[in-house]
Amino acid sequence: MPQKKRVTHQQKGDSTDAIQIPQLLVISARLHSIMSTAREDANHCFVCGPNNPIGLKLTFSLDGDECVSEFTPDAVHCGYEGVTHGGIIFSTLDDVMANWLYLRGHKAVTGRCDLRYKAALPTGVPVHLRSWCVKQRRNVATMAAEMRRQDSGDLVAECEANFMILSD
Fold first, then answer.
1. Spacing of C-alpha 10 from chain mean position
2. Which parts of the chain have pLDDT scores under 70?
3. Can you give the C-alpha Rg of the chain in angstroms?
């Protein structure tokens, strides 16, 4: 059975850490070039920037048709005591959608986002983030994403957003 492609965007010191390639997988030169830059244009991003001292430092990877990441909110990410702030949840979902596009060679910004919170997320509970493209026309991509608890699989939040793709 063929292996799924798995391309990883990580913020490590060595750009060779940024790509995990199964032995028989060949990726395009353009994608390799994009991956080896390790997001030099977003080093201070709150969600994924490695140089943001108060950032979340999430890493993103492509897994088939999805972009995925994991996150465990800390006590400093709460709104009410012990409950993850909704803005942190939104930020991680926004970034997993933006990185779906970025890891495919497109810089994009959020145009609108419809977010539905389904359950409170206690701090300290690991979650899985995933995003996918619903449709793409010219310079607008409609994306969807969800956050699920890793322990139970329960849905924490889901969203759909339009991203404006910036010209190269």
1. 11
2. 1-40, 46, 49, 168
3. 16
* Spatial CB neighbours of 24, under 8 Å, sequence gap ≥ 6: 3
pLDDT at 168: 62
**pTM higher than the cut 0.85:** no
Q: Which domains does the chain have, with CATH numbers?
A: 6-165 (3.10.129.10)
Q: Residue 36 to residues 9, 39, 64, 123: CA-CA distances in angstroms? A: 9, 8, 20, 33
Place of tokens 């897994």: 63
- Nearest-CA neighbor of 89 among 72, 103, 102, 110? 72
Site of tokens 């490590």: 12
**DSSP letters along 61-113, please?**
EEETTEEEEEE---GGGBSSTTBB-HHHHHHHHHHHHHHHHHTTT--EEEEEE
CA distance 75 to 103: 30
